[in-house]
C-alpha cells in the first residue's frame, strides 16, 4: 500500500471511532438506562433509534398527562367532563371484571380436584353434546387457565391496593 491509499483508510477508521463514541453518548443522553459501548457491534447499535423512539413516545405521553392535569386543575369544563367519562368507563370495566371473577370462580375451584387426580392439560374432564349434535369438551387446561387467570387478577388487585395504600 502506498501513503495515498493508507491515509483515507486511517481517516475512515478515526471517523468510525468518533461515530461510535457519538452513538454511545447519544444512548447515555437518553437517561433511560440505555448503554451502548463504543466497542458494541453495529447490529447492537441499530437498536438505538428504537430506544430513542420509545423515550420520545414516553415523554410525549407524559406531556399529554400533565397538560390534562393542568386543564383539570384549572377548572376547564372539557377536561373535567373527560375525567368523568374516563371514571365511568373505569367503573364499568371494574364491574365487568367482578362479573368475570364470579363466572370463573366455580371453574377455578374445580381445578383443585382436577389437579389432585393428576389430569394432564390435554385430558378431557367433561364432554356434553349440544343441541346441534356437536360434542363440546372441557379439558383440564380450561380449569387450570381459569384458576391462573383468577390468581393473576387477585395478585394485580392486591398490588394495586398496596400501591394505593389500601389494606384489604
Overview of this structure, please?
The protein has helices spanning 3-29, 42-45, 48-73, 77-116, 140-164; strands spanning 124-129, 135-139. The protein is mostly helical and 168 residues long. The chain has a domain at 1-74. It has a two-stranded antiparallel ribbon. A hairpin with a 5-residue loop joins strand 1 (124-129) and strand 2. The longest helix has 40 residues, at 77-116.
Number of strands: 2
Low-confidence sequence ranges? none
Describe the biggest sheet? 2 strands, antiparallel
- Report, as a whole number of angstroms, the end-to-end distance: 78 Å
List keywords for this structure.
168 residues; single chain; mainly alpha
Concise overview:
The protein is mainly alpha-helical. It has five helices and two strands.
Write the topology of this structure:
Blueprint: H1 3-29, H2 42-45, H3 48-73, H4 77-116, E1 124-129, E2 135-139, H5 140-164
Antiparallel strand pairs: 1-2
Helix pairs in contact: 3-4, 4-5
Amino acid at each position: 500500500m502506498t501513503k495515498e491509499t493508507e491515509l483515507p483508510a486511517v481517516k475512515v477508521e478515526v471517523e468510525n471511532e468518533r461515530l461510535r463514541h457519538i452513538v454511545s453518548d447519544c444512548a447515555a443522553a437518553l437517561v433511560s438506562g440505555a448503554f451502548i459501548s463504543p466497542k458494541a457491534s453495529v447490529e447492537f447499535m441499530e437498536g438505538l433509534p428504537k430506544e430513542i423512539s420509545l423515550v420520545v413516545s414516553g415523554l410525549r405521553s407524559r406531556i399529554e398527562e400533565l397538560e390534562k392535569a393542568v386543564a383539570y386543575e384549572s377548572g376547564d369544563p372539557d377536561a373535567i367532563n373527560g375525567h368523568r367519562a374516563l371514571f365511568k368507563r373505569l367503573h364499568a370495566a371494574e364491574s365487568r371484571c367482578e362479573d368475570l371473577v364470579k363466572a370463573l370462580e366455580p371453574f377455578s375451584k374445580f381445578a383443585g380436584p382436577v389437579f389432585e387426580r393428576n389430569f394432564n392439560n390435554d385430558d378431557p374432564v367433561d364432554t356434553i353434546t349440544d343441541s346441534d349434535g356437536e360434542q363440546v369438551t372441557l379439558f383440564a387446561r380450561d380449569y387450570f387457565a381459569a384458576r391462573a387467570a383468577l390468581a393473576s387478577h387477585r395478585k394485580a388487585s392486591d398490588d394495586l391496593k398496596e400501591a394505593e395504600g389500601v389494606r384489604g
